[in-house]
Request: fold
Amino acid sequence: MVNKLTKRKLKLFAVYDLWKVAVVSVLACAILLLAFNFVAKKPSDGQEFKILIDKTVNMGDDINDLFENLFTKAPEQGGFSYEMLKAETVIINGTDENPDAYLLNSVYGDLYYDDVVILQEDLLEIYVNNHMATDINVYISDAKAFLISNGLCDANGVFNETAVYDYFDRTRKGDSRFRTKEKKEQGRKDELERLKGIWFMANALENCLRANPNLLDKEREYNYYTLPQKGVYALRLGALIGKDGADISNLFNIKHVKEDTEEIYYSADGLYLAIGSNKEENGDLYYEMLSVVYTLIKTYTTYLD
Reply:
């Protein structure tokens, strides 16, 4: 027969044991969480796609389709490569009284970590004049030059797989995603696909924009530390029309008022897409933004069909 005191002791021991189990469980979860965070790949600037949008621009339902296309299609179909790990949209906020501060003092400060920006004319001019945008045509030609100069492919787009694998081993050395032999082999294949996608999209866009210069903004000039700069720095979103069932205003639009009737309507006229001049920060992932330009033109026009 167990007396009352013994029963009480047994009960206390049981509670104590449960408490120990709970503590051990919590510690185990904490250790696993720390281990996961340590091993998991934290996106670099180049691996995190940011699209910065002027607060006066409306986003439509097509924004979901845009991200889906970018992250599900293969690079040679206009999608991002295996290296793009994260994406976000960022609304540029500020005071209307000071448009320079409005742009430059946004959530990303000097905006050197942007990938693409969607702006109206006034802010685009500020963006360009502050040496933040890259010339679209130069960007495309530089993408091809990057591949050729590194011996990854020749001028005809014939790839050297050995050179690509060596490039992957050299540049992705120490990446926690490729620790096993199987993961490394798959990474090499994914890298070849990524680089082939760069070549494919650069060629397609080069031919498209040469044949359809109306898709691009006018040439702009500015001085950078007294050095004259000249280039074409943006894609005209309002010019992306012509494909049945597709309307660019379902992606981005701004409010317009007809002068004669004062009727209000919304369209992408007067909106521009510029690519951030952040090659130094993004390295060879700088050319991932080809996917954005290619996908937009492919979705809303017939020029790439």
